[in-house]
Amino acid sequence: MATLFSPFRRGYRHLQYLAHEQPVIFYSCVLGLAGPVLALTVPAVRRTWFGYTPAEIPPTTYPVPKRPRRLVQGYEDE
């Protein structure tokens, strides 16, 4: 059973080594792994705990009135 977990133990020890000897590489690994996790969890947290609702989509066209068009009067530019 111990051989089953030995790759994880070696990975953990390697991360400890990187944290002490090369912290830039360690923190870049931490941030690189945290990005996808946060991308999946933050929208759900915003919706459930903070009550966030997306903004209403603005209209892209002007609504046309549902009546016949009136002829324009008073602007005789002939």
UniProtKB/TrEMBL annotation:
Residues that span the membrane, as ranges: 24-45
Keywords in alphabetical order: Membrane, Transmembrane, Transmembrane helix, Ubiquinone
UniProt protein name: N19M, NADH-ubiquinone oxidoreductase 9.5 kDa subunit
Superkingdom assignment: Eukaryota
Lineage of producing organism: Eukaryota, Fungi, Dikarya, Basidiomycota, Agaricomycotina
Source organism (scientific name): Rhizopogon vinicolor AM-OR11-026
